[in-house]
Amino acid sequence: MSLARRAATLLALLLAAVLLAAWLTARPGDPALYPPAPGEAAVTVRLVADAWHSGLLLPRDALAQAAAEAGDGALLEVTGRFRAYPALEIGWGDAGFYRAVPTIEALDWRLALRALFTPGGRPAVLHVVGVAPEPGTAFAGSEIVSLRLSRAGFRRLAAALGRTFAAHDGHPVVLGPGLYGPSLFYAAEGRFSLLAVCNHWSAGLLHAAGLPVTPLLDTLPRGLVLDLAWRAGASGPHPP
């Protein structure tokens, strides 16, 4: 067998293995939560994805109401702190990398590799940004995917989000100013690693809301965007 044919065979086998792994690890959605029934009240949330990171853009009032109904004091405190803004953009990631690399131009490969491959994972943080009514101006260059969630699904998402905030005496732990705009970093639950990156976190919250997700595909922002379009029928992606 020629070298070219061997390479083609190996590539085909690798592709088949990846597709099989994606299929085996795919998580089904919950039809009782997503999509909302025709005529049912819905809450629109957005996935904001760039070259290496994704986060969720959530309506602040709906999030505050869900936190109050669930008695989630930490999440209620966060939404109260950003009460002047109609939406919150929230992301999760490695504490060292996230705080040190605000843009792709500032990428430090040593930090990236350390974040992805440290045995046992690394501490995580949450980044919360207050967003004005027109989010496009805040996310130039990012893709935005819109998703209509049922109210029950949104409450599940809010509950999962609330569990991500690390709390001390019932209060979220503020770590300092965020990267841009009116923003703050908060201490977070979970450990960041190659098997638990920011895009998995975003997908996990959407899965809590009833959407089907494919963790292997969702490792990269573009994969998550395509996953939501293919399996959840999401509108987009579209530029801000």
UniProtKB/TrEMBL annotation:
UniProt xrefs under InterPro entries:
CHP02117 (IPR011727)
A Pfam family recorded for this sequence: DUF2459
Q: What is this protein called?
A: DUF2459 domain-containing protein
> What is the native source organism of this protein?
Methylobacterium platani JCM 14648
Which lineage do the record's taxonomy fields give for this organism? Bacteria, Pseudomonadati, Pseudomonadota, Alphaproteobacteria, Hyphomicrobiales
